[in-house]
Amino acid sequence: MILTSLDQSLELGRKLAELARPGDVIALSGPLGAGKTSIARGLLAALGLEGEAPSPSFAIVQPYEPPEVRFPVLHVDLYRLDAPEEAEELGLDDARYDSLLIVEWPERLGEAAWHDALWLSLDVAPDGARVLTAKVPAAWKDRWFPT
Fold first, then answer.
1. φ, ψ of residue 146 in degrees (nearest 5)
2. What is the CATH number of the domain that holds 104?
3. Is residue 112 part of a domain?
4. What is the mean pLDDT for each group of 10 consecutive residues in the chain (147 residues)?
């Protein structure tokens, strides 16, 4: 999939909001400025968040709860983690029972940590467009929309 504008990234997030549910993990991978947070913002807006969602870069985990959004969501940014062991303190495994996890920089914990995640990887093309590839796990096969 090719995303040529911010609006298309936000729209992808809105479409994901129609498919996502508590217990899911959406892993957003790609270099700085690739559009990971834009996709997350579109998703959060479609779940009811008013205003722009802040990037969780410094907080690491930005929680959202009803009535702010339709169901609990944790927007996670693992960029600042120095070692995978640091993530244990975040309680992400427990949060998955009732929350959607949107995880930026998931590769900081390795792909094995997110074996059942919808893994979206973004690359920036020379013309500035974003090239998105998806690894769709079994739990998403019936929900994933054609690209």
1. -65, 145
2. 3.40.50.300
3. yes
4. 88 93 94 92 95 83 93 92 80 85 90 85 92 91 74
